[in-house]
Amino acid sequence: MAKEYDTFVDDISTLKEGEEITIAVRETDIYKTRVVKAIVSSSKEKLPEGEVMWMRYNRGYLRPEPWFIKINQDVPGLLGKKAIGDN
Q: What is the 3-state secondary structure (H, E, C) of the chain?
């Protein structure tokens, strides 16, 4: 089963589609936040190997349509504290 992610963004126009960016995403099944280098897209057709990424406004409201993300690698050390259960 493919993973789903979410992230918090107020202005979607600041996301560079089709280019590698560094972004914090949360795995929606376990609520674990990761900082990753990834390619994002607003359509599945532009990123067919991408997984679902839900966009949330900074107040937490979910945007109606998902985006898609292809994670290339994790970026360690950018989060202020470890998640519960991380060693």
A: CCCEEEEECCCHHHCCCCCEEEEEEEECCCCEEEEEEEEEECCCCCCCCCEEEEEECCCCCECCCCEEEEEEEECCCCCCCCCCCCC
Cα 54 to Cα 69: distance, rounded to the nearest angstrom: 10
**Contact criterion met (CB below 8 Å) for 69 and 40:** yes
Out of 9-13, 48-52, 73-77, 80-84, pick the least confident. 80-84
Domain membership flag for residue 84: no
- Domain extent for 36: 4-74
Query: Residue 74 corresponds to which amino acid?
Result: D
User: Tell me, what's the pLDDT at 69?
Assistant: 98
Domain count, the chain: 1
pLDDT digits (tens, 9 = 90+) for 31-50: 899 999 999 999 999 999 99
- Is 68 a domain residue? yes
